[in-house]
């Protein structure tokens, strides 16, 4: 990039930010602290509305020239829980609208929420919105009561490690694979050549172990289901709200007011206040206000924070299309 272009971009950033039109963070820097807004109720114990929205990842996604973007789910959830530690939170309303995401990021978010619940001895009620699948369902297992919206799609208890074999295309255009390795399985799954049977079997063991981990989390979060029943349900399929209820994957089918009523019952309070934490210019007006969506140009890998290499995913990804 030329010095002239860098200078133009810097000047544009200063001009726009000083005019109050937009927040630019093109060249790095910190984010503003979280603000607190009451989104429901006027009195009673304080409840935190905690959002798990979009693809779950552990890297920030930045928009064009640093505008907009999306924070890593892991760090944002931890920051909100740290703030909640000092705010006398009586319960958490966990709102999930996510197809899942990276395996480790999903597990980190689940563990952070579970840790907070256990250390503070508070109830958590989950309300599932449009999609609460795979890693989204995994995170919901940290709660005490799970309500699916009547039109929710949930489940997808499985693992995916997507890959391509480009060797035929390479051969067509005269491109050779010159990768050098030490170790039989060092480049297992490489898109530059066909996968061998031993390599496929080896990678399958990794995916199977992660699948087993997912099942263990479900067994822990749904004590009415034994391991054998969870294994039967964990074939990767998604379930409608009614099917999830019938199979014991959720506790009820209902709406946001039902989740509020459940929280009132659990903390034994006739009224409560629901608060949301957000950055200075994020709009949070009510229980349905959400964080900004990912940038339009962000690809799946960028959203997952795995753009630097391959990864294993707790993700509902039908047809291979990016959500």
Which helices and strands appear, and what pairs or packs with what?
Layout: H1 3-18, E1 35-40, E2 46-53, H2 73-85, E3 89-98, E4 100-102, H3 103-120, E5 124-133, H4 135-140, E6 145-148, E7 153-155, H5 167-172, H6 197-221, H7 227-233, E8 238-240, H8 241-246, E9 252-253, H9 256-267, E10 273-278, H10 300-304, E11 313-315
Helix pairs in contact: 2-3
Written description of the protein model:
This protein is an alpha/beta fold. The protein has a domain at 21-155 and 236-307: 2-enoyl-CoA Hydratase, Chain A, domain 1, CATH 3.90.226. It contains ten helices and eleven strands. It has helices spanning 3-18, 73-85, 103-120, 135-140, 167-172, 197-221, 227-233, 241-246, 256-267, 300-304; strands at 35-40, 46-53, 89-98, 100-102, 124-133, 145-148, 153-155, 238-240, 252-253, 273-278, 313-315. The strands form two sheets. Strands 1, 2, 3, 5, 6, 7, 8, 9 and 10 form a nine-stranded mixed sheet that branches. It has a two-stranded antiparallel sheet with strand order 4-11. Helix 2 (73-85) links the parallel strand 2 (46-53) and strand 3 (89-98). Helix 2 runs parallel beside helix 3. It is globular and about 70 Å long. Residues 4-29, 292-298 and 302-309 have low confidence and may be disordered.
């Amino acid at each position: 990039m030329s010095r002239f272009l860098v200078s133009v971009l810097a000047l544009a950033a200063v001009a726009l930010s000083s005019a109050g039109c937009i927040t630019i963070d093109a060249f790095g820097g910190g984010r503003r602290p979280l603000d607190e807004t009451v989104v429901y109720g006027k009195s009673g114990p304080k409840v935190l509305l905690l959002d798990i929205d979009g693809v779950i990842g552990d890297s920030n996604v930045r928009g064009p020239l640093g505008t907009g973007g999306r924070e890593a789910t892991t760090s944002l959830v931890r920051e909100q829980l740290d703030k909640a530690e000092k705010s006398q939170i009586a319960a958490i309303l966990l709102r999930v609208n996510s197809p899942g995401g990276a395996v480790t990021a999903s597990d980190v978010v689940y563990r952070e929420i579970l840790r907070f619940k256990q250390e503070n001895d508070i109830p958590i009620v989950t309300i599932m919105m449009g999609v609460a699948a795979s890693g989204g369902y995994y995170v919901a297992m940290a709660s005490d009561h799970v309500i699916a919206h009547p039109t929710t799609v949930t489940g997808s208890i499985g693992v995916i490690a997507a890959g391509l074999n480009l060797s035929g295309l390479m051969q067509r255009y005269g491109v050779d694979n010159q990768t050098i390795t030490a170790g039989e399985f060092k480049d297992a799954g490489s898109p530059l050549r066909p996968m061998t049977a031993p390599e496929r079997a080896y990678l399958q063991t990794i995916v199977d172990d992660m699948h087993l981990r997912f099942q263990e989390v479900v067994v822990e979060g749904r004590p009415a289901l034994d391991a054998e029943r969870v294994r039967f349900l964990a074939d990767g399929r998604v379930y409608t709200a009614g099917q999830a209820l019938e199979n014991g994957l959720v506790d009820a089918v209902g709406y946001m007011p039902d989740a509020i009523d459940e929280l009132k019952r659990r903390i034994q309070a006739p009224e409560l206040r629901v608060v949301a934490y957000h950055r200075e210019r994020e709009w949070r007006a009510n229980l349905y206000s959400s964080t900004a969506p990912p940038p339009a140009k962000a690809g799946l890998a960028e959203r997952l924070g795995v753009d630097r290499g391959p990864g294993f995913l707790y993700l509902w990804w039908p047809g291979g299309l990016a959500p």
